[in-house]
Specification:
By secondary structure, this protein is α/β, with parallel strands linked by helices. It folds into 3 domains: 99 residues, Glutaredoxin (3-Layer(aba) Sandwich); 83 residues, Sandwich (Hypothetical Protein Aq_1857, Chain: A), CATH 2.60.300; 96 residues, 3-Layer(aba) Sandwich (Oxidized Rhodanese, domain 1). The protein has a 5-stranded parallel beta sheet with strand order 12-16-15-13-14, sandwiched between helices. Strands 2-1-3-4 form a 4-stranded mixed beta sheet.
C-alpha cells in the first residue's frame, strides 16, 4: 500500500532537516537498543554533535513509515545528504572500510596499529583460544564508554592488527586509537580466569558530586565550571539551578568544542538521566565530568529550599 502523502511529506521534511539524519530508537544520550547505540557511537566519533536524530519510539507513524519509505525493515536507518545509507550492519561495514568517512567528506581513517603489550599468561590464553578455530581471530572492541570486550570471530579483512609475543589482536577503526599502549594480563575472578586490561587512554570515570559540594565549587570556580541542565524545557520552567544552561543541540556542539579538561557538571531531576549525558561526554574524552547526586530534587532540599519541588 502506498505511503500516506502527508506522512511521506513529514518523513521527507525530517530527512531534509540536516545533512546527516539518523532514525533510531531512543536519543543520542539514551539509545534504547544496541544497534542504535552502535550507530550513534560511530557517528559521534566522526561528526560529534553535527547530526540530527529522530526517535522513532515517540512516533509510531514515523517508525512504520520510514521502513516503507526506505524499503528497509529495521531501525536504525542513516541518511546522508538525503540519501539512504543503510542500517547498523551496513554503516559498521562502511565505517571500518573508510567508506563512511568518505561519504561524510572526511579524511580516510588512520590505520596505524596501536602498540600493545601482553603478559605471558595472556598471550598463552589467547593462543589456546585460537587453537582449532581456523579463520577465526581474537577481536577486541572498546566502546564509547571505554568498556573492553573480547570476541573470537571471523576475520573480515578490514581489521587493524596489533601484535605482541607472536599473538595478534584485531581492532576495528573506532577501537584502535583507544588501544595505544594497552596492557593485557589475566586475573582470577569469582567467574574464573578473565582478562585484566590497563588502558592509559581511558578518561577518569564520571564523579558523583553532592549538592553542597557543587555549591562550594560554583562559589570557588565561577564561570569556569559548566553546569548543564539535561531536563526538558517544561521541567526547567518549574525550577532550575542558576547559572546553568539547557542541553540542546547548540549546547552540545559548544560543549564538545571546549578544552577536554573543562569541569562539566550535569543535573536532571534525580540524577539518572544526567548520568547518561555525563557518560557521553566522558566518552568524548573529557576528564573532569561530574553528575549531581540526587539531581535538582536533592539541591532543593540541601541548598536552595526556595526552589519548587515536583
Amino acid at each position: 500500500m502506498p505511503l500516506d502523502p502527508s506522512l511521506q511529506s513529514r518523513i521527507e521534511s525530517l530527512i531534509e532537516a540536516d545533512r546527516v539524519v539518523l532514525f533510531m530508537k531512543g536519543t543520542r544520550m539514551q539509545p534504547m537498543c544496541g544497534f542504535s547505540a552502535t550507530t550513534v557511537s560511530m557517528l559521534d566519533s566522526l561528526v560529534p554533535g553535527d547530526y540530527t536524530t529522530v526517535n522513532v519510539l515517540e512516533d509510531q507513524q514515523v517508525r512504520d513509515g520510514i521502513k516503507q519509505f526506505s524499503e528497509w525493515p529495521t531501525i536504525p536507518q542513516l541518511y546522508i545528504e538525503r540519501e539512504f545509507v543503510g542500517g547498523c550492519d551496513i554503516v559498521k561495514q562502511m565505517f571500518n572500510s573508510g567508506e563512511l568517512h568518505e561519504a561524510l567528506g572526511l579524511e580516510a581513517p588512520d590505520r596505524t596499529p596501536p602498540e600493545i603489550s601482553l603478559s605471558d599468561a595472556a598471550a598463552e590464553l589467547i593462543r589456546r583460544a585460537r587453537q582449532g578455530n581456523p579463520g577465526q581471530g581474537v577481536h577486541l572492541s572498546i566502546d564509547g564508554r571505554w568498556q573492553h570486550a573480547f570476541n573470537l570471530g571471523p576475520i573480515q579483512g578490514d581489521e587493524i592488527r596489533a601484535e605482541d609475543k607472536g599473538v595478534e589482536i584485531l581492532f576495528d577503526i573506532a577501537s584502535a586509537p583507544k588501544a595505544k599502549n594497552l596492557a593485557i594480563d589475566i586475573e582470577e575472578t569469582m567467574q574464573g580466569t578473565a582478562f585484566k586490561i590497563d588502558n592509559p587512554n581511558a578518561p577518569p570515570p564520571v564523579k558523583q558530586i553532592t549538592p553542597t559540594e557543587l555549591a562550594q565549587a560554583m562559589a570557588a570556580q565561577g564561570s569556569s565550571l559548566k553546569l548543564v541542565d539535561t531536563r526538558t524545557v517544561e521541567e526547567r520552567e518549574k525550577a532550575k539551578i542558576e547559572p546553568s544552561i539547557l542541553l540542546d543541540r547548540e549546547t552540545m556542539q559548544e560543549l564538545s568544542a571546549l578544552p577536554k579538561d573543562t569541569r562539566l557538571v550535569f543535573y536532571c531531576h534525580s540524577g539518572v538521566r544526567s548520568q547518561s549525558v555525563a557518560e557521553h561526554f566522558r566518552a568524548e574524552g573529557f576528564v573532569d565530568v561530574h553528575n549531581l547526586k540526587g539531581g535538582i530534587d536533592a539541591w532543593s532540599i540541601e541548598v536552595d529550599t526556595s526552589l519548587a519541588r515536583y
